Amino acid sequence: MDGTDGPFAGPVGRGPSTCENRGTMSDAPSSRPAPGQLTLVAPRRGKPPRHLADLTVEERREAVAALGHPAFRANQLSTHYFERLVDSPEQMTDLPQAVRDDLVADLLPPLLGPVRSITADEGATVKQVWRLFDGALVESVLMRYPNRVTVCISSQAGCGMNCPFCATGQEGLTRNMSTGEIVEQVVAAARMLRHGGLPEARGLDGGAGLGDEAEGSDEPAVRGPARVSNVVFMGMGEALANYKAAIGAIRRLTEPAPSGLGISARGITMSTVGLVPGIDRLAAEGIPVTLALSLHAPDDELRDELVPINTRFKVDEAIDAAHRYYETTGRRVSIEYALIRDINDQAWRADLLGEKLAARGRGWVHVNPIPLNPTPGSKWTASRRGVEQQFVERLRAHGIPTTVRDTRGSEIDGACGQLAASTA
Question: Would you call 20 a catalytic residue per the annotation?
C-alpha cells in the first residue's frame, strides 16, 4: 500500500526528465530538483510496517485470523485505535493479556516518531515534526479556531511538484506516505485534543482559516478538549500523486467509529496543484470532500513558472476539471492563490481570474488569496496590503466570493508553503 499507482507515467517538465531524488535513509532527497522539473512517480523505498489503518474492515478481520486469533479481535482493535485513541496494550483490558502484545505489535506498530513540537497563537496552533520508519521527516499542523479544530496533514515526504515559492517543493520528493502514516497524523491530533493539549482559540480569526473551504460541514462547534472536525490535505506533498494511499486515508477518516474516525467528509479538503486525471478520479469516488485548486496565476505564461505542472495541464484544463468536480459532487470548489508582490498580484490578473471563473457559472467557486508566507532564501515576498485589497475587490466585482486566508503558524514555519521538515 505504498500508493505509487498515480495516473501518470513519469517525470515531466522543463528540467531534465529524471527520477533521481531517491535519497538514502535520511531526511530528504540527495539533491534538489532542477527548476521546473516534476517528479510524478515517487521513488521506491522500503514499505512502512503494515498498520490497522492501512486495512479495510474485512482485511483487518482476515489479518487477525491469519495470526491465529478470532476475527472479532479486529473489531476490538479498531475500537481502541479509532474510538478510544489508544495503542498501548496495557489499556486494552478487554483483550486477553496473553495476546495483547502480539496483536499490537502486528497491527498497531508505531508509524510516527515525534521529533519536535512548536506552538504559536497562544498555544492554539501546534506544528509537529515526525520521523517515519526510514528516517524521512514530515510535518503536520493542528489548529484550534473558535468554532472548529483543523489538522493540516502531509501525504508525501517532500513533494515532486517543485513550485519555486514553496519550501516543500524545493526540497524534492523523498517518498509517498502510506495510508496508515497519513491517518496516524490525525489520530495523533485527536489524542492531543482528548488530553487537553490545545487551548481554546480566542480572537484569532483574522481571515479565512484552514477548514473554511469545507462549506456545509455538519460538525458541531468545537470548544475545549474535543475532536478534530476538519482535515486538510495541505501539508507536505501532492496527495493526488499518491492517490491510492490518500483515498484510503479519506475512507478511514470518514468511516463511522469504530471502523474509522467518523469525521464528516464535508469537513475534509483535498488540495491539488491541478492534476486533472486525479481530480476527475476523485469526483467519481462518491465522497463529498471539498476540492481546493492551488492556481496562483490565471495565465499560462506565469503559471508555467510558478506551478510547473502547468506545463502538462494548462490553466483552463485545471479550472475545467475543478468545475466538473463541482458539477459531479455539488461541492463548492476553493481556488487557492498565493499573492506574490509584483509577480501575480496585478489588477489585470485579478480581472482575468474573475472572468475565467465567472464564465463557468455562479455559486460553484470561492477564492482564497493567501499572503505569501516567507521561506528561507526566497526572492519573493507578500503583496502590499493595498494591492491585496484591490485584488480582492476586482474578484468580487466579477461576482466571485473572495476571502483572504489567514496566516496561522507563519512564525513557526507552519503556514501554507512553509512546511519542509526544517525544524528538526
Answer: no
